[in-house]
Write a structure and sequence with these properties.
Elements: H1 3-57, H2 78-90, H3 95-119, H4 123-145, H5 152-177, H6 181-202, H7 207-220, H8 227-241, H9 244-267, H10 270-282, H11 287-299, H12 304-327, H13 331-344, H14 360-384, E1 397-399, E2 404-405, H15 408-413, E3 418-421, H16 441-464
Antiparallel strand pairs: 1-2, 1-3
Helix pairs in contact: 1-10, 3-4, 3-5, 4-6, 5-6, 5-7, 7-9, 8-9, 10-12, 11-12, 12-14, 13-14
Amino acid sequence: MNMKTKIALLSIFVLLAGVSFAFAEEAATVTDTATNVVTDAAAATNSQVDAAVAADQTVTATDLNVAEPTVLPDSPFYFFKNWSRGVQSALTFNKIKKAELRAQFANEKLVEARKLSEKTQDPAVLNSAMQNYETEMEKAKDAASALSSTDPAAEKLLNKLTDFQLKRQKLMDNLASKLPEQAKERVLKAQEKTLEKFAELMQKENPEKIKERMEKALDEQKGGQFKNFKNLEVLLKLEEKLPEQAKAAIQRAQENALNRLHGDLNQMSPEDQTKFKTYLEKIGGDELKQAEIINRLEKQGLPAGLKEKIKSSREEVINKVEKRLMNIEDDATRKAYLEKIDAEKAETSSAQPTSNGEDVGSLLQKRIELRKEEQKRIDAKSQTGTIAACAKAWEPVCGVDGKTYSNICKAKVAGTAIASKGACANVIKPMPTLTPKPINMEEYYKQLQIKEAERATTQTQTETKPIPTSVTPTTNQ
């Protein structure tokens, strides 16, 4: 092979290598671009869902017709703020004005509690703030009960109070979702009390008037594309507190809200229907009532595509119930929650099975039965004092101590709170703290002198060592 041939072959090889590299680089660029597009799309979807959640559960001071508080219950000057309120109320003689003023004070105290939770999550501090709110709600209810519903001015105020009630529920849902379990339970208790006071106020109303007033308030609620889901949740909670004669009216309002939600979901694009699943992961509120809403949606005639998305959504709600159970550290509170689930069993049961033969109520009940068994084993621990009472099932959870436990029971027996469901991942152990030993300066200088003497001796021996005489090799004659 001559030189020209070799050069030609080498040129062809270089050309092919360059083309291959270019194609590989282009393919990598396309792959990176596609990955970035998917990532950007997911980020955009999450952002849109976050906006929908915020729209449905964020209630500002302005929404409640009050100003953002500057003096909170933990301030030494709060006494003067309450004194000023007492003077205002004492000097207000008109019944409608007094009822309106009491509602304003209740709203102020609820906003104060929310703002206080941003400073501290101390259960004792928040308990005091929520107690202030409950006391004020009692006074607001008494003032409103003295009104005559035949008075047009009173009718207008009652409409406003209904609007406030829906907003208070959403504010407390949002507040509870951000608090540790003990403080969360206190907020939920205040929420129950608030509903009871409102239900007492509604007792003297004509049932049809209640439905009309509620639907008007619901229509005027701000919110995102899934707002009817949150509105329906509030109606379900309110129904529990109303007297029997008023429940029929609220049930009709629930049916209308459900139909609107069902219609909204049917008319949405497939992408927006998928967002509903993410929305359910993030929205705060009563997980059991949310399970009931999903159950009711499953009973409706749904297109195949939407039915699959609803099926996926119900799993998110059931997961929220399980997560709530895992996060309850106090055994008494945990048992109370399990009892509440039992009470809801009939509500979450469906006459029509889902595509896999089980409705949301049945699935939820199966999971809860497992949790009840765990609770029994945890109770048995108090008698055995060991983990022998725990099941051997592998349902790992990660404790706050960074250790993986085979199930909730064993974590509880070990006295460890649950950080998350599943085995711990990427746990970074803290570096051990190195404590330097104290230096004895006298000993240090002594050792330094010994080493210096040894070095000097070695150097002297090297300098006095005789230089060997070179030997001239001899040659054979």
